[in-house]
Amino acid sequence: MATYERYAGRHVAERVRVAPGSDEDKALAADPAWVCVDAPQPTTADPMDRPPLSANKPEWVAYLVAVRGDDQAEAEAMSKAELIAAAAEAENATAEPEED
User: Which long-range contacts (CB under 8 A, 24 or more apart) does 42-50 make?
Assistant: First the structure.
């Protein structure tokens, strides 16, 4: 079963479990308001590649831990939007300044 959560701020507003591959699973995966909270599937992508915005929350947690060295538990406590914002800040901080 795939588990999806919808958040209200930092709190889970709704949680549903659906059969993997079902029409409902596909609809929830396509809806940005829902986050699949099951463990991410192994991927062949470079672990330092920035996940797409549609990636599930565990992928963003893994990316933030890799990029900023955040504590896993602290990253998991953040919302997906907070993870994306923190990743953007980290990427901007590591970018080389432009020379005049």
Answer: 50/87, 50/91
